[in-house]
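Q: I have 193 residues here and want to know how they pack in 3D. Can you give me a structure?
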Amino acid sequence: MDQELKELLERCKANDRSAQTALYRRFASKVFATALRYTDSRDEAADIAQESWVKVFRHLAKFTEFNSFEGWVRRITVNTAITHYRRNLKHRYHEDVTETLATPLDLAASKKADFTMEEIQSAMSALPKGYRTVVQLYLVDGYSHKEIAEMLGVDINTSKSQLSRGRRQLQGYLLNMARRAQPHPGLPNPGEA
């Protein structure tokens, strides 16, 4: 941890408002981006981010300099997003998309395609909430199925199933993007005209 951050954290622990504002400005975009990966909307992500910041400042005294502050804040944000998800779970409509994914996956074509981070994030955001949450927790944040099951209050096999289905649907979305990006046979490539 750099000396500047260490001093900023000490001032925040002493309830220095200017230090708290500076800390917020330094990490706000990362907290919001993490929250956004677990939500359907920017408004929902803003709520999660705000709740996360309240927790960060409430529990800042428990943070020790031997840990990564950014990792600590990210974990608080992920846990807040999971709590938010569980709280709203009963209000969500869940669709089993395995039946709606009619086209077989051409994994060779999708492996040849290079996707931008924006395309991957777009495909992730198109996943149903349950799939997206498990895919995000497992593939991006590195949680085990046991940890995911405990966080979401589900069986380990449910976590595995959601990951499998989510991966399959994600691959389908990415494959469709790759197909749309390929020039149509028989038509001139726009870059060659």
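Q: Anything worth noting?
A: The two ends are 54 Å apart (CA to CA). The domain at 3-91 is CATH 1.10.1740.10 (Rna Polymerase Sigma Factor; Chain: A).
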